[in-house]
Amino acid sequence: MKTVYKGGNKIILKDSEYKTSGGEGDIYFHDNQVYKIYQNPIINNFKDKFDELSVLEKTNIIRPAELLFNSNNNIVGYTMRMVENTEALSLLFTSTFLNRNNITVDKTNNLINNMTETIQYIHDKGILLVDINEYNFLVNKVSFDIANFIDVDSYQTKSFPATAIMPTIQDYLSTNFTKLSDWFSFAIIAFQLYTGIHPFKGKHPDYTKDKYKDRILETRMRNSISVFNKDVSIPNNVRPFDEIPDSIRSWFFDLFENKKRLIPPIISTGVIKKNIKGKVISNNIISNLIFACDEEIIGHEYIQGNRILYTRNYIYIGNRKYTNKINSKILYRNGTFYFIKKEGVNKYSVEDINGKSVIVNNNNLFVFMNRIYSLGNGQLQELDFINNNLYKINSWSTNDLSTKVYYNMFITIVLGAYYFYIPVDTNKCFIFLVKELKGYKIFDAYYSNKFACVVAFKNGQYDRFIFKIENNSYFILEINSNINAEEINATVNNKGVLILQYENILYLTNGNGSKTISEVNDIGSITSELNDIYMYNGNKFNLIKEK
């Protein structure tokens, strides 16, 4: 709980109103406003910067609204307008998220256009953004074509120079921050929205960790060795460069390869010159290990011995195919399968396999491993479904605002510390603090059968953590540093082996040892490995195609 003063009025921010923490402050949602409370003292003349930022009146710029003070009348933070129904911009880097939400290249063009126009507007006001990293934007998750600009207090104004920038979007060829360095930083983000890869990633034979250690990315950015370079190899799941509008692609090439610094052509022409539909990009070996299907598999599970597959348009129960109501989940009770789908706020349709339906009202229903959970009123509840009605089995205390739902798990952040909530069985939920994730922003998370994977962002890079969960505790199996921003693509087979795919690589572990298979292009390329019996510290397991 924190006490602040706004306009002379005392405001108490409850722990239940805490949302998240950033590099500078804690975020609370109170009375339909966002409160940012700084963790450290701020500049004494912040009110002057506050005034200089007040010229930013565009509705998608979430600038400081009212100053907040402590009991000594020192500035400790400010309020902002609340924007709802948004997602982090970084999620739109991944093909899986684009495909799942039907985000075509047309929509990406519109989003890029919106961001470009907003940056130009900010520049016209004599202000620089400087730290244009992907976590300083929230995208409308209905249309996915409007970006809300946040962390506006860090912008460079006439009297207040910027002090920080993420290394992944820094223009190392510029000695100071300018409009053109802003455009270079934005281009890096825009390129990832189109392709799914940072323009200075991929592999180049002359830029290795042995030679440059942790400075490979910076060195390549300084030397302009981008993904356009003929000697750079990139993963197969990178989206095609020819989907980028012609004028924008030429702009990227000039910036990243020719060391030019230019404003984007969309500003000078006012239109995007190329307009094409997106493609489904999939190199999903995990899906092929599970089941051969005409569409990319976006989820799977086993219920009562039946394999359940979720694609964009269908649900498969065993070998039977059903039309997929988007966001439906399967529940099995008393010999019957049910389709559960969110229809609106606190409203869910429940339809049995024969089409008979009822309506169930509840807060935020989630179906994990054939069990039902809800999140609301400070509780994570396990529910059951009998005679078309829900009833509570058990509950655990949590914070609704700071809890996010991932694959088979919940993660709550409390003052920068992450807690895993893992429902491992009926009436049983493991809850524990994961100290190693403090200071990170969670990008994606996954849990299945004693294994958890987390991709998280910190200091300009994405790291992947692989955990083994046992007896309400955990230990780290592996940490992969500075990876591409990818949603987790994993499964645990019927031998208790975690199979994780990233780029063109399969990583396998049973918790006692691990094996990595590189350069995986399709199932045919790893036939011999699939037939092998791998030995991990004396423990044998078969990696076999599940049938």
Folded structure, characterized:
This protein has 547 residues and is α+β, with helices and mostly antiparallel strands. Among the domains are: 2-81, Phosphorylase Kinase, domain 1 (2-Layer Sandwich); 86-269, Transferase(Phosphotransferase) domain 1 (Transferase(Phosphotransferase), domain 1, Orthogonal Bundle); 440-547. It is built from ten helices and 36 strands. The strands form ten sheets. A five-stranded antiparallel beta sheet has the order 3-4-5-7-6, with helices on one face. Strands 11-12-13-14 form a four-stranded antiparallel beta sheet, with no helix packed on it. It has a four-stranded antiparallel beta sheet with strand order 15-16-17-18, with no helix packed on it. A hairpin with a 2-residue loop joins β11 (299-303) and β12 (306-310). α3 packs antiparallel against α4 (179-195). The longest helix is centred in the first third of the chain and has 20 residues, at 105-124.
Q: Can you give me a brief rundown of this structure?
A:
The protein is α+β, with helices and mostly antiparallel strands. It is 16% helix and 37% strand.
Overall geometric form: globular
CATH architecture verdict of one domain: Orthogonal Bundle
Spatial separation of the terminal alpha carbons = 53 Å
What's the average pLDDT?
A: 86
Count of alpha/pi helices: 10
Strand content: 35-45%
Helix content: 10-25%
List the uncertain runs.
267-282, 531-547
- The CATH superfamily of one domain is identified as Transferase(Phosphotransferase) domain 1
User: Biggest β-sheet: count, sense, barrel?
Assistant: 5 strands, antiparallel
At the first level of CATH, the class of one domain is Mainly Alpha
Query: Order of strands across the widest beta sheet?
Result: 3-4-5-7-6
Helix/strand/pairing class, anyone? Answer: alpha+beta
